[in-house]
Amino acid sequence: MSEHRIFADSDSCDLYPVAMAIHRIVRLPVTARTKNKKGVRIEEGHLIDNDYTGPVLEESIHINALLNTVPENGPYKGVPVIVAPIRDDNGEAIGSIGVVDFAGVFDLATLMEHQSVILKQVCGKDPCPLPTELTGSKR
User: Fold this and answer.
1) Which residues lie closer than 8 Å to 117 by C-beta, 6 or more apart?
2) 98: domain CATH number?
3) What percentage of the chain reaches a pLDDT higher than 90?
4) SS3 75
5) Which of helix, strand or coil describes residue 14?
6) Fewest CB within 10 A of the end CB: N or C in the chain?
7) Which residues pair with 85 in a beta bridge?
């Protein structure tokens, strides 16, 4: 019987199989590192970097919390990411793993802000009035 364990001192070789499995499932870039060693960056089915760290991975370990943010630097600068801590049996962060937040790429707040402009462009001056059978008014 074989087993796989991740510790605060695990290296990229230890993280690679788990990160690659997640990458194959979600088909998005995946990064991971442990508390004391750099880790991996995987994109498009390939190991891009086996000595990788990133600011959000590091912050997630430091504060031991899930982060859903947009990095200000690094290879994912400006791209929404979700990073979760990897915790030991005591709940302490021993590493972190992250994925590009595909849903976050579609910024709902921005879409809502521009809704009236979009409606005017699509429908003309009057932003898509409801049919009279829905409003009950007679024109």
Assistant:
1) none
2) 3.30.450.40
3) 63
4) coil
5) helix
6) N
7) 96
Structure tokens of 7?
A: 């510790």
Q: Which whole-number Å values give the CA distances from 120 to 4, 93, 95, in the listed order? A: 57, 49, 48
Residues of the domain holding 20: 12-105
What three-state secondary structure class fits 44? coil
Q: How many CA atoms lie within 13 A of 90 on its CB side?
A: 5
Q: Which residue has the higher pLDDT, 88 or 127?
A: 88
Q: What is the pLDDT of residue 66?
A: 98
Q: How far apart are CA 67 and CA 80, in angstroms?
A: 10
| pLDDT score of 120 | 58
Which strands, in side-by-side order, build the sheet including 46-52? 46-52, 39-43, 30-34, 93-100, 81-87, 67-69
- Is residue 54 predicted with pLDDT exceeding 90? yes
Separation of alpha carbons 70 and 67, rounded Å:
9
pLDDT digits (tens, 9 = 90+) for 66-124: 999 999 999 998 888 999 999 999 999 999 999 998 776 666 566 555 556 555 555 55
Domain co-membership, 38 together with 98: yes
* Number of other residues whose CB lies within 10 A of the CB of residue 94: 20
